Amino acid sequence: MLAMAKVNDESALMRDLKEIPGLRVKLAEPLARYASMKIGGPADYFIEVERGAALAQLLPLLKRHRTPICFLGNGSNVLISDRGVRGAVIRLAGDFKRAEWQEEGGVAWLEVGAACALTQLVREAARQGYAGLEFAEGIPGTVGGALVMNAGAYGSEFEKIVDGVEGVDSDGQAIRYSRKEMTFTYRDSHWPAGAVVTRVRMRLRKEDAAQVSSKVRALVAKRKSSQPSGYPNSGSMFRNPPGDFAGRLIEAVGLKGKRIGQAQISERHANFIVNLGGAKAEDVRRLMELARAEVKKQFAVELAAEVRRLGEWDVE
Ligand SMILES: Cc1cc2nc3c(=O)[nH]c(=O)nc-3n(C[C@H](O)[C@H](O)[C@H](O)COP(=O)(O)OP(=O)(O)OC[C@H]3O[C@@H](n4cnc5c(N)ncnc54)[C@H](O)[C@@H]3O)c2cc1C
């Protein structure tokens, strides 16, 4: 276990961070407000990066100071520990929210910063009549998070529209992958650990704007009819096992509605855990363990977490 770092405004790291323009640094920043589940203790250093040049200086600096790092997008696929995160949590902002659209012979090329909100892009694509992104309506993540997770829904996923990815590695060096150089699997892009996605190039198709919009509206309705609303959550907690659905299995073992503390397996959809108000990350983790153990006992199926745990935990 890492000890809580001595974070203060006078630390050697803080002095160096202040030398880099384009960073916003907060000490001991509570993370619950940055996670869709509204759970999570403090980050020693919470660093928002506004510009590419700042990112290229920041990552080697943190390496030199031996400060552990992790990245946060919109926090919609993470479970952040109650004790929080030791080291630095890095979130892209500012210039990383830019998007450029170009049309060429029926194809739309979308060059987009990793901090862009997916849902905004879906709506803009629909307005302009570019098809391919509709599946992402209702996925409350950033482009960076969606790339890393290979986010998907309703038979499509990110890998189908990605043409190339840019990022920065832990030495501050720019990295770039073409679609062919990337390996996507179900809810994973195998993005290298320690590197940050900064920009994604996507390929969409030019179609009739009214048709694209109507497809988006149909998917919104479908989502509303099946997923819980009203309580903070992180979407699906488990990946679907081959040929089955995690939600069906958890419901079948009788855990729909099960509560630990203020965390509850949703009564609407058993693959969601909702925060009824003031839930602890540990409550959520224990509910997940319970679901996993019962499904294994009754169906001999191993459920794998889709949600990624961040921060300090007592258990693996
Ligand atoms: C109501 C709800 C519905 C959802 N529906 C769906 C769905 O239909 N399909 C689906 O696939 N997901 C769904 N999700 C889950 C989630 O929205 C997606 O996985 C989303 O793509 C995560 O993006 P994010 O920006 O929130 O990433 P985060 O949750 O912040 O991070 C996810 C992972 O990506 C890493 N990461 C984030 N940004 C970067 C970056 N720039 N560089 C490197 N690493 C990075 C993080 O370290 C973490 O490991 C849903 C979630 C909610 C709350």
Chart the SSEs and their pairings.
Elements: H1 12-18, E1 23-30, E2 42-49, H2 52-64, E3 69-71, E4 78-80, E5 85-92, E6 99-104, E7 107-113, H3 118-128, E8 130-131, H4 143-149, E9 152-153, E10 156-157, E11 162-168, E12 174-178, E13 196-206, H5 209-226, H6 246-252, E14 259-260, E15 263-265, E16 273-275, H7 281-299, E17 308-310
Parallel strand pairs: 2-5, 3-5, 4-17
Antiparallel strand pairs: 1-2, 6-7, 7-13, 8-13, 9-10, 11-12, 11-13, 14-15, 15-16
The protein binds flavin-adenine dinucleotide.
Flavin-adenine dinucleotide (FAD) is lined by residues 36, 70-78, 92, 114, 139-142, 144-146, 148-149, 151-153, 196-197, 233-235, 308.
Which stretches are low in confidence, meaning pLDDT under 50 for 5 or more residues running?
none
- Helix tally equals 7
The helical percent reads 25-40%
Number of domains: 3
Radius of gyration: 20 Å
Query: What is CATH's topology name of the largest domain?
Result: Uridine Diphospho-n-acetylenolpyruvylglucosamine Reductase, domain 3
Residue-averaged pLDDT, rounded? 95
Q: What pattern of helices and strands is seen along the backbone?
A: HEEHEEEEEHEHEEEEEHHEEEHE
Structure description:
This protein folds into three domains: 12-95, Uridine Diphospho-n-acetylenolpyruvylglucosamine Reductase, domain 2 (2-Layer Sandwich); 98-226, Uridine Diphospho-n-acetylenolpyruvylglucosamine Reductase, domain 3; 246-310, Uridine Diphospho-n-acetylenolpyruvylglucosamine Reductase, domain 1 (Alpha-Beta Complex), CATH 3.90.78. The chain is built from seven helices and 17 strands. The protein has helices spanning 12-18, 52-64, 118-128, 143-149, 209-226, 246-252, 281-299; strands at 23-30, 42-49, 69-71, 78-80, 85-92, 99-104, 107-113, 130-131, 152-153, 156-157, 162-168, 174-178, 196-206, 259-260, 263-265, 273-275, 308-310. Strands 6, 7, 8, 11, 12 and 13 form a six-stranded antiparallel beta sheet that branches. Strands 1-2-5-3 form a four-stranded mixed beta sheet, with helices on one face. Strands 14-15-16 form a three-stranded antiparallel beta sheet. β11 (162-168) and β12 form a beta hairpin. α3 packs antiparallel against α5 (209-226). The model has no long low-confidence stretch (mean pLDDT 95). Bound molecules: flavin-adenine dinucleotide (FAD). Flavin-adenine dinucleotide is lined by residues 36, 70-78, 92, 114, 139-142, 144-146, 148-149, 151-153, 196-197, 233-235, 308.
